[in-house]
Design brief:
The protein is mainly β. About 0% of the residues lie in helices and about 15% in strands.
């Protein structure tokens, strides 16, 4: 995966079934990245490496049993679609909060884990009113 660090023009990445991948920091230098799908990465606890991906528009987080933080998405100013896919045996229950994405004009959130609230007045889970949950 380290080979991705020099790919400034890369627009789409799918990382799937890499059980030892603990970080997506290698993607932080991918300035043109628009679409990311992270699936079945059993060691991934955060998506902090995506914080430098200002062009990122679509993120799919699927079956990430250790995911505890999506705070890295707060730097994704073009984000339009955020989808969670959660397995009943691996419910992303370590995911404690959502970052404040209220600056986004429109964001579609699908499959938000049931233990998280979609928005909360004045809280970290605050989203713009145009969001579909």
């Amino acid at each position: 995966v380290d080979v991705l660090s020099g790919c400034a023009a890369l627009q789409t990445v799918t990382l799937e079934s890499l059980s030892s991948l603990a970080s997506v920091d290698v993607l932080s230098g991918c300035a043109a990245l628009q679409t990311v799908k992270l699936s079945a990465l059993n060691s991934l606890a955060s998506v902090d490496g995506l914080s430098g991906c200002a062009a990122l528009q679509t993120v799919t987080l699927a079956y990430l049993s250790l995911l505890a933080s999506v705070d890295g998405l707060s730097g994704c100013v073009e984000l339009q679609s955020l989808e969670f896919k959660v397995a009943s045996r691996s419910p992303m229950d370590k995911l404690a909060s959502m970052p404040d994405l209220s600056f986004l004009v429109g964001l579609e959130v699908k499959g938000l884990p049931s233990h998280l609230q979609a928005w909360e007045d004045g809280g970290r889970k605050c989203f713009a009113p145009s969001i579909i949950v």
